[in-house]
Amino acid sequence: MTSASYLEHYLDSLEHLPIELQRNFNLMRDLDSRAQGVMRNIDKLADDFLSNIKALSPEKKKENMSAIQSQFNKAKEFGDDKVQLAIQTYELVDKHIRRLDSDLARFESEIQDKALLSSTRTQEESATQKRGRKKAKDKEKKKRVAGGSSAEEEVSKTARKKQKKTGGKSGTGPGKGATTTTNSATENSLLSAIPINHPSAVDVLDMPVDPNEPTYCLCHQVSYGEMIGCDNPDCPIEWFHFACVGLSTKPKGKWFCPKCSADRKKK
Questions:
Q1: Alpha-carbon gap, residue 252 to 2, rounded angstroms
Q2: Tens-level pLDDT at each residue, the chain (267 residues)
Q3: SS (H, E, C) the chain
Q4: Does the annotation list 220 as a binding residue?
Q5: Which UniProt keywords apply (predicted)?
Q6: What pTM does this model have?
Q7: Cα 42 → chain centroid
Q8: Is 244 known to sit in a ligand binding site?
Q9: For residues 224 and 209, what is the distance between their CA atoms, to the nearest angstrom?
Q10: Distance from first CA to last CA of the chain, Å, rounded?
Q11: How do the domains of the chain map onto residue ranges?
Q12: Is 260 annotated for ligand binding?
C-alpha cells in the first residue's frame, strides 16, 4: 500500500471525529451548567438552614438535611456523567492516534521489505553480470590461445621455406649472411605478433545481506522508534513498542507486558 493510500484511509476515518467531539463537548458543558445550578441551590438551602436552625424542630432539621443531601447526590451524578464523557472523548482521540501509529509501523515495514527486495535483486543482477563478464573473458582467452597457435604454425612454415631456399646452411659471404639476417628478422617479427595471455584479476563479490530480521512486540513487527523491555526474564517477547502497549514515556520502576502482568495476577 502506498503512502497516499494510507493517508486517504486515515483521513476517511477522521471524517466524523470533529462532529463526535463537538457533541461530547456540548454535553459536558450542559452537565457542568446543571451541576453549577445544583451547587447554587445547595448554598441557598444551607444558608436558610443555618440561619433558622434554632427555630427548627428536630424533624424539620432532618428534613432540611435530607434535602441538602439529595442535592449533593444530584451534583455528584452530574459530575460522574461529565467524567465519563471526558474519558469517552479521550479514548475516541486515542483510538485514532493508535491507528496512526499502527499505519506508520506497517508503512515503515513495507518500505524496509521493498528496500530488502531491491537490494536482493541488485545483488542477483550484479552476480549475473559478473558471470557474463567471466564467460566473455574465458571466450576471449580461448580465441587468443587459438590465434597464438596459428601464428606459431605460420612462423614454423615460413622458417621451413627459408631453410629450403638456403639449403639449411649458414654461409659466411655477404649475400648469404644478409639472407640469414633477413630470415631471423622475419621470424622475430612473426613471433612478436603472437599474443601473450595474462591471467585476469579476481573479481571480488560483495558480501550478501542477511534478509532475516527479527520481529518483536504484540504486533510482530521489526524494531523501530522507542521500545521498552519487559522485566520478566522469562517473557517470550521481551521488547515492545511504546504505542502498542499504550505508553508515551518510560514508566518508573519495573514494567511488565500485558501477558506477564496477567500471569502475575493469576499467581
A1: 38
A2: 566 676 777 677 778 888 888 999 999 999 999 999 999 999 999 998 899 888 888 898 899 999 999 999 999 999 999 999 999 999 988 888 888 888 788 878 888 888 888 888 888 887 888 787 877 777 877 777 665 555 555 545 554 544 433 343 333 334 333 333 334 443 344 334 434 343 333 343 344 435 578 888 999 898 888 999 999 999 999 999 999 999 999 898 999 999 999 998 887
A3: CCHHHHHHHHHHHCCCHHHHHHHHHHHHHHHHHHHHHHHHHHHHHHHHHHHCCCCCCHHHHHHHHHHHHHHHHHHHHHHHHHHHHHHHHHHHHHHHHHHHHHHHHHHHHHHHHHHHHHHHHHHHHHHHHHHHHHHHHHHHHHHHHHHHHHHHHHHHHHHHHHHHHHCCCCCCCHHHHHHHHHHHHHHHHHHHCCCCCCCCCCCCCCCCCCCCCCCECCCCECCCCCEEECCCCCCCCCEEECHHHCCCCCCCCCCCCHHHHHHHHHC
A4: no
A5: Chromatin regulator, Metal-binding, Nucleus, Zinc, Zinc-finger
A6: 0.39
A7: 60
A8: yes
A9: 19
A10: 44
A11: 1-125, 213-266
A12: yes
229, β-bridge pairs: 239
219 is in an annotated binding site: yes
Beta carbons of 244 and 235 less than 8 angstroms apart: no
Q: Taking the CA atoms of the chain, what radius of gyration do you get in angstroms?
A: 47
235 a known binding residue?
yes
d(CA 94, CA 35): 28
Amino acid at 107: F
Residue 16 annotated in ligand binding: no
**What's the topology of domain 213-266?**
Herpes Virus-1 (3.30.40)
Alpha-carbon torsion (262, 265, 266, 267), positive or negative: positive
Cross-strand pairs, 221: 216
Contacts of 215 (CB under 8 A, 6+ apart): 221, 222
